[in-house]
Amino acid sequence: MPMPDPDDNNKPLVNDPAREAVATMRGYSYQVLCSVLAWINIPEGEVLYLEGAEDLDQVYGDDATTTQVKDTRGSGNVTLRSAGALEAIDNYWSHKQRNPERRIRLHYLTTSEIGTEKGDPFGRKLPGIELWRRAKKSDDLERKSGDLAAIKAFLIEQDGLSDDLKSFLGGCSADELLTDLIEPINWDTGAGDSSDVRTEILAHLIEFGADKQVPVRDAEAVIGHLYDEAWVVATRDHDRKLDRVSFIRVFDAATQISIPKSHLSALVAQITPDGETGAPLPAIVGNQRAISLPPPIPTSHYKREGLLTMLEAASGHNSVVILQGS
């Protein structure tokens, strides 16, 4: 007779799947992981704002790159007609109007791949996002002009754009369209999922820790501390910023072990001259004399006469000294 499964007595409640927020929570978690990755890689002098103009705002003086993060692969492909894409374009225009003194770029980062708009508005099954990219890079002036005109006509017809942006589109030149709207927006499609982002974060932490002689396992463990800190910062009412210094502080705090000075003194007191623990010895912690058999001096070194004199005088004493520094 089969044994009863203990989990049979702890079955989940029958729920309404429409009220599940798994996809929403997965999206927020992905956003936090992308925030951590951007935080690790932020150059000195730049600041990363979470939940600012967009999900991530990386600022350096008058230059700002704002990023929308979308884990939408499960919802299908993204097109220029997608609600999220049109919202991103309109949001960029709003940011630009509110910050006329800043040079703003927008990245639309999504795990979704590029799809083709229904009705094939650009012809030859060419996706609008690919046309956008081509208009930015093409050296063929005639083709570039045609691409810009097609994008302009398409956007004017979309319901998801503000009247202010449509007013600009209705009266702008090709050069103005390129400079003020097309070039500042990047479509980062087909981005890696949470597992890929996590793997990239761990690789950066291992490399950063290697320079500090931090073991791989300890360096990898920092990801949890960074993730927690990013969540805390992103949910604050104010001061939602991160920078290079804050990353280093979290990394150092997570890879160090602190013990009370009294415990350290007790451990040092048990060290014997032969390296074994035993009866307590007089321990001097600090910049004082006490050592036996100083190590040999390298052939090429900078002499520190005072320290050498102290070490020579301490030779033969049944004591321990701890030297801090290089």
Describe the structure concisely.
With 326 residues, the chain is of the alpha/beta class.
Question: How is the topology of this model organized?
Answer:
Blueprint: H1 22-41, E1 47-50, E2 56-60, E3 63-70, H2 83-98, E4 103-110, H3 128-137, H4 141-156, H5 163-171, H6 174-182, E5 185-188, H7 194-211, H8 216-234, E6 241-243, H9 244-254, H10 261-269, E7 283-284, H11 305-314, E8 320-321
Parallel strand pairs: 3-4, 4-5, 7-8
Antiparallel strand pairs: 1-2, 1-6, 2-3
Helix pairs in contact: 1-7, 1-8, 3-4, 4-6, 7-8, 8-9
Which tags fit this structure?
326 residues; two-stranded parallel ribbon; extended
Please give a structural write-up.
It is a single chain. This protein is α/β, with parallel strands linked by helices. It contains eleven helices and eight strands. Helix 1 packs across helix 8. About 4% of the residues have low confidence.
Question: Any idea what the shape is?
Answer: extended
Strand order of the largest sheet: 5-4-3-2-1-6
Which ranges are low-confidence, i.e. pLDDT below 50, for 5 or more consecutive residues?
280-291
Largest sheet: 6 strands, mixed
Give the number of DSSP strands. Answer: 8
What is the CA-CA span between the terminal residues?
71 Å
